[in-house]
Amino acid sequence: LSLGQDDLLMLHQDSSGLEKLISAGDMAQSIGRQPVDVTITGLRAIDTSTLEANARVIVGGYYAIGDGGGGVFYYDPVATDPDNGGTIIAPNSGSGRWKRPFTASINIRWFGAVGDGATNDATAIQNAFDAACKLDSASVYIPSGIYNIGAPIMVYAAPAVSLSVFGDGAASSIIRQTTLNTNGLSFT
């Protein structure tokens, strides 16, 4: 794959409708400056006091490199959005927010879902659905794995929200309820 400096990699639109083009040149500069061995914990720990607006960091994973929770984040020094654990990350100290540009689906692994059949992934999955329901139109992607939930996942979408959920197949993307007498997924 060969990309020129001005080839478009993605288009990001924030909640105010402002669009930002991220080019191959932007990505190359980011890759040249930032290691890919940062997790979400490492992203939170970055000293933001000397960063310029739109500084980028490539996160290699949520808990560990390669766990599916990684991606590109950019720094917005004036943002005050609540930290949702996956697409908006507040630094441990300082102001602003780290934001994940995305145009397609919200991946539950971005929010810390593990899918190992042992971890209780309820909070991560709930956070992913909450983030999706705040958008006008969104898809939630459930990658292959067994996602245990010890509490019901409540999906509250306004009537105007277009929400879809998909995975890698019924035998591959499994949400397993681990408690009795509660709903697994509840759509309201």
Write a structural description.
This protein is of the alpha/beta class and 188 residues long. The protein is 15% helix and 35% strand. The strands form five sheets. The protein has a five-stranded mixed sheet with strand order 3-4-5-7-6. The protein has a three-stranded parallel sheet with strand order 8-10-13, with helices on one face. The protein is globular. It starts with 7 loop residues before the first strand and ends with a strand. Mean pLDDT is 83; it is low at 1-9 and 27-33.
How would the blueprint of this fold be written?
Layout: E1 8-13, E2 19-23, H1 24-33, E3 38-39, H2 40-45, E4 56-61, E5 71-76, E6 88-89, E7 97-99, E8 106-107, E9 116-120, H3 122-133, E10 137-142, E11 145-149, E12 153-155, E13 162-167, E14 173-177, E15 185-187
Parallel strand pairs: 3-4, 8-10, 9-11, 10-13, 11-14, 12-15
Antiparallel strand pairs: 1-2, 4-5, 5-7, 6-7
